[in-house]
From TrEMBL, chains A, B:
Family matches, as SUPFAM superfamilies: cAMP-binding domain-like
InterPro entries xref list: cNMP-bd_dom (IPR000595), cNMP-bd_dom_sf (IPR018490), RmlC-like_jellyroll (IPR014710)
GO MF annotation: an example: kinase activity
Domain Cyclic nucleotide-binding: 30-116
Keyword Transferase recorded: yes
Name of protein: cAMP-binding domain of CRP or a regulatory subunit of cAMP-dependent protein kinases
Source organism (scientific name): Flavobacterium gillisiae
Keyword field contains tRNA processing: no
Pfam families membership: cNMP_binding
Keyword annotations of the record: Kinase, Transferase
CDD domains on file: CAP_ED (cd00038)
Highest taxon, organism lineage: Bacteria
Amino acid sequence: MYEQLAKSIGDKVTLTEADFEVCKTFFIPKKIRKKQTLLLEGDVCTYNAFIEKGILRSYTTDEKGQEHIMQFAFEGWWITDLSSFLMGVHSTFTIEAIEDSELLLLTATAREELMDALPVFERYQRLLLQNAYIALQTRVNSALTATAEEKYTKLTISYPDIIARVPQHMIASYLGLTPETLSRVRKQINLRK
Amino acid sequence: MYEQLAKSIGDKVTLTEADFEVCKTFFIPKKIRKKQTLLLEGDVCTYNAFIEKGILRSYTTDEKGQEHIMQFAFEGWWITDLSSFLMGVHSTFTIEAIEDSELLLLTATAREELMDALPVFERYQRLLLQNAYIALQTRVNSALTATAEEKYTKLTISYPDIIARVPQHMIASYLGLTPETLSRVRKQINLRK
DNA sequence: AAATAAAATTGATTTAGATCAATGGTATTT
DNA sequence: AAATACCATTGATCTAAATCAATTTTATTT
């Protein structure tokens, strides 16, 4: 149940086995079924979730009821509404499981305590955040620069997992395209090869 | 020369005056004139720049020679190409002064040393990054969701400084619009009031 | 396994914003 | 202060992607 977490932390910092045992105690394991929500828009996000197994997504809903996906999260990734989680404000995102998933939840206070108990955890969190920030910049740039086809092609290269495991209409939403446009883009690409 | 830095750090963490004196020694002051570059696309970004005075911007240039602005940075903000700065890869961004500016530069090694010397500096950096990440998410969401007019209106509300101090064609670039479209959007808004 | 719901595809049409082009303004530069 | 380069505005036209609508395919549920 903690394999992915051990791997994720170990990739970024050095932690003894004893310290990892301490680390584990701060997390709350939780299973969540496909289509169940971990967070509803408007609620306060009380957890930062680490994914041991499965896929989740976070999304906003606009006035017309259309969903806009902010993030997909797979095994070994984290997902939360950061501003709600850190500042205690009402969330703008809904977080929902795309597959049956196994999570490790960290409350805001547990997170603070864990960073105090194991200073490398703060470093780990900073390193994760750096990567997440860089990835988001790339996404902004793609949104400003790229055509529909370029956006899709870049995604297939950078995140083949998303293409393989996520329904197409959700990929469209993530890229800021309609499902129809994405379907046509894929057809074009296939015709050319 | 260090007023803005003292303010920025003081807003996030607690630092004694003596520690701040230590902190100062890690920075290299630098003046840069309007239109001069701090970083050219393709070079390795050796500095994380804190802005004491002035405005800078970071942007990518596409195949057609068009510039796409990733970030504006004012007094009290930081600017860098994070992935180039941290990983030593060639930068995708150019960083350039919009006005004559005064900077405090931190090299990657100075930054590491500073975080070792003053652990609160690591926390300060993490807190900055958290805010930057949340702001970027908001920008992605706006890019996915909003019309040209909504993008502009949101910017006027969230960042009136940008509207007031940055040329219009750069605002257009930042929003992913052409200068013509932004001009028309502004006209529409003015006609309505 | 049949029934139902959800997702993907394809076609016809519309539209928001881009592009092309010209003019008037506003800064820099000499 | 004149000259030059850069910016913002306005108009006409074009186009990539959205919308509307129908059909086929694939998943879920009973």
